[in-house]
Structure formats: C-alpha cells, structure tokens
Design brief:
The longest helix is centred in the last third of the chain and has 19 residues. The chain has about 400 residues and is of the alpha+beta class. It is elongated and about 95 Å long. The chain is built from 6 helices and 25 strands. The strands form 7 sheets. A 6-stranded mixed β-sheet has the order 7-4-6-5-9-8, with no helix packed on it. A 6-stranded mixed β-sheet has the order 16-13-17-20-19-18, sandwiched between helices. Strands 21-23-22-24-25 form a 5-stranded mixed β-barrel. Helix 1 packs parallel to helix 6 and helix 3 packs parallel to helix 6. It folds into 4 domains: about 160 residues, 3-Layer(aba) Sandwich (Molybdenum Cofactor Biosythetic Enzyme, Chain A), CATH 3.40.980; about 55 residues, Molybdopterin biosynthesis moea protein, domain 2 (Alpha-Beta Complex); about 80 residues, Molybdopterin biosynthesis moeA protein, domain 3 (Beta Complex), CATH 2.170.190; about 70 residues, MoeA, C-terminal, domain IV (Beta-clip). A hairpin with a 3-residue loop joins strand 8 and strand 9.
C-alpha cells in the first residue's frame, strides 16, 4: 500500500489526534446499580434528590445549647435530654436549656451552639457550667453541608471512582445511567504461540500478550468480550477478523502488522476495511495499524508484548475513553531526574520504563528498569514511569531532567 505519512512513521501526538478525531460516544444508556457502577462513565448528570444530611448535626461530642450565640464563661445550663446519631431528642430547647449530644446527632429545635465536652463541667443537679472559653466555632454541620437538594453531584462523562460511589450512596442514589462499555474483540496472531500449560515445541513461545492486554484493559475499566488466538494463516485470520467485527465494537489485534512474510493483518485490514496509518515514529511500537474493519475501529498493536502494552496505553485507551464519552484522561506527566546515567543513540522518540524514587533532598528520581527490549516483560514489572526521550536525545548523565508519564492510577 502507499505510504500516507513519512517513512519513519507518524509522530505519537499526531497519531492520537487522528485516532480520536473519528470517534464519538457510543449510543444508548444502561441503568446500573450503584454497587456495579465502579469504573463506568455517567451518561447524564446526577443530582442530589434532597439536602444531605438533611438536618443540622453536631460535629463534636458535647452539649447543644439554646440560642444562637456562644455561651459566656461561667454560664450555667439545665440538662433536659440526650441526642445521639439515629436517636434525636424530640423536644425544642428553651432558653437556659441544654442537651447532651454526640457527634453526628441531629440538633434539637432551638439549639444554636454546641460546646465541646472538654470545655464544660458537670454539676450535681443535672446542670452544666461553661468552665473554659468557647470561641467562635459553633461546631454545627449544616443541613446541606454535603449537598443541597437538586445540586449536581456528578457531570455527564465522568468515570466513577470509589469516592464518587460513596458520595452517591451518602445522598441516597441507588442506581444511575451509564454509557455502554465498548465490546472489545481481541485477536492474537502467531504460528509460534503456545497456550500456557501446554507443551512447548522447539522455537515456540508461550502466549502472553492475551494475558497482558486483558489484564491491562481490566485495570483501565474495560473488558474483552471475545478473544481469538490464531496462527499466521490468512484464511483463518480473515475469518477471525470478520467474526470479531460482527460481534464486537472495537477490534484489537497484536502481531502481524509489520512487513514480514507472515504479517497478514495489515493487508487483510486494507481488504476488509481501511487503513488510516500503520507505522509510528516511536520506540517501542513502530509497527502499529489503525483503521476501520467493517465500520468498527481497528487497532493493530505490535507483536512484542512491551510495545503492545505501551501503544495500547497511548492510543487504544484514549480511544476507548472517547467511545464511552468520558473526559479524556491521559497519563499524568511530571519532571524527574535520572538516578543513573542512560546510554542511548539518537533515533526515534522512546518511552523508557523506569521506577520512581525519592532522593535525599526530596527530589523525584527515575531509575531505568533494566534492559529495554520490547520483548522483555520484566521491564514492565514494578514500572512507575515512562520516561519521554525525544528523538534527538543521546546518552544522558545521572541527574539529567526529563518528562515522564506516571503509570500508577489514582485510588479515589
């Protein structure tokens, strides 16, 4: 096929723009229970059905006093009851009255101040006396402190994390509308591949790309709906591609996208769909095909596992976010210094796997995770960073400052 881009390949930023420009949110809406919503993307804004917590509550263990002003030092108050979480005191407070109150308990009507218990002394006749200066903090949680009635809690297009789910639960939201996840079809090709657990013939390797990509997609909140492992046979590959295009929304392959005698994926894609580009100006990850297969987005990842994982993070993951209508979130970037010297010849831009350390002065250090061959899965183990090395970059001394992409995902 003709080369639509420079022979060295398409720069990563340009490739990402080309991928994303043609993708839109998938149609439809699913309603899911809150317990099943982790990692899903909101299809519509979510609002609080009522004010939360819905009542004024004490922030401290202490005493709720009648009146809106801080009590003066030495003032005496008559105890008339007790309020606890889930067990409020029902009656209103009259001037000079107080209620023993626990953290989180509703304030009685007429109460305007909570005095922490360490500022108060108990007297023998069911009274308390303010023995230390109270200050200006009333220690009261507002009835709408978490949310006002009708307040937007989440916008559309937001991927739900643990804190989002907890806030929705605290506001009494039992279910919500989410965007359907794209069904991902995964094709792993290669004559040399042997299933894990099977006997390996001479020259063969155990198949690991399927395990790597399925686990990576799961970690990113996605799921593989169908997977096929197929030898380098054009008829078998065509059949697998047609099946995946029929039954899934996004087709992802690994292997067979270069120009070797057994690399059939790219010519099959050109025959069954269209090829937008098939080479990246990137290390690892030069052989990478993107296009459409029977109208479905197609991503042809490299066959080497590290290159497959890195290009999936850089190009497939943003595309899946776009298909879910989510706000695009690339890996966050930070500045780091090399912990040791790095030997390299200028050439392609490179994403180098490294671990993150903190130096003696609190500086962020990157330690390269051993040999960087794109076939070496060990370079991914415990990797915290992808160091961004520009094409013109040569060998670097310890202490050199670089941009790096942070691989660890947020918790909340």
């Amino acid at each position: 096929m003709a080369e639509p881009f420079p022979p060295e390949g398409l720069p990563l930023d340009q490739a990402r723009r080309l991928v994303l420009d043609g993708l839109v949110r998938r149609p439809g809406v699913e309603t899911v229970a809150l317990a099943a919503a982790l990692g899903r993307v909101t299809a519509a804004p979510v609002s609080a059905p009522e004010a939360i917590p819905g009542f004024r509550a004490s922030v401290m263990d202490g005493y709720a006093l009648a009146g809106p002003s801080p009590p003066p030092l030495g003032s005496r108050w008559t105890l008339v009851g007790r309020a606890a979480p889930g067990a409020p005191w029902a009656g209103p407070l009259a001037p000079g009255e107080a209620v023993r109150i626990l953290t989180g308990a509703p304030l009685p009507a007429g109460a305007g101040w909570v005095v922490p218990q360490e500022l108060v002394g108990l007297e023998a006749d069911q009274a308390i006396r303010v023995e230390r200066a109270v200050g200006t903090n009333p220690w009261i949680r507002a009835a709408d402190e978490e949310a006002a009635a009708g307040q937007e809690l989440l916008a559309a297009g937001q991927r739900l994390g643990p804190a989002d789910l907890a806030r929705l639960a605290s506001c009494g939201v039992p279910e919500l509308a989410v965007v359907p996840r794209p069904r991902i079809g995964l094709l792993i090709s290669g004559d040399e591949l042997t299933p894990v657990g099977a006997s390996r013939r001479p020259g063969a390797i155990w198949e690991s790309n399927g395990t790597l990509l399925e686990a990576l997609l799961t970690r990113l909140g996605q799921a593989v709906a169908m997977k096929r492992v197929v030898p380098d046979d054009p008829a078998a590959l065509r059949q697998a591609l047609e099946l995946l295009a029929e039954r899934t929304d996004v087709v992802v392959s690994t292997g067979g996208v270069s120009v070797g005698d057994s690399d059939w994926i790219r010519p099959l894609l050109e025959d069954l769909g269209s090829v937008a580009f098939w080479k990246l100006f990137l290390k690892p990850g030069r052989p990478f095909a993107f296009g459409t297969l029977a109208g479905k987005p197609f991503f042809g990842l490299p066959g080497n596992p590290v290159a497959a994982a890195i290009t999936a993070l850089q190009l497939l993951w943003p595309a899946l976010q776009r298909l879910e209508g989510a706000e695009l979130q690339l890996l966050p970037r930070l500045r780091v210094r090399l912990a040791t010297a790095l030997s390299r010849a200028p050439g392609r831009p490179e994403l180098v796997r490294a671990t993150l350390e903190v130096g003696p002065q609190g500086e962020l250090l990157a330690r390269v995770a051993g040999p960087q061959a794109s076939s070496r899965l060990g370079s991914l183990q415990a990797a915290d960073l992808l160091l961004e090395l520009p094409a013109a970059c040569g060998s670097l001394a310890a202490g050199a400052e670089l941009w790096a992409q942070l691989l660890r995902l947020p918790i909340f």
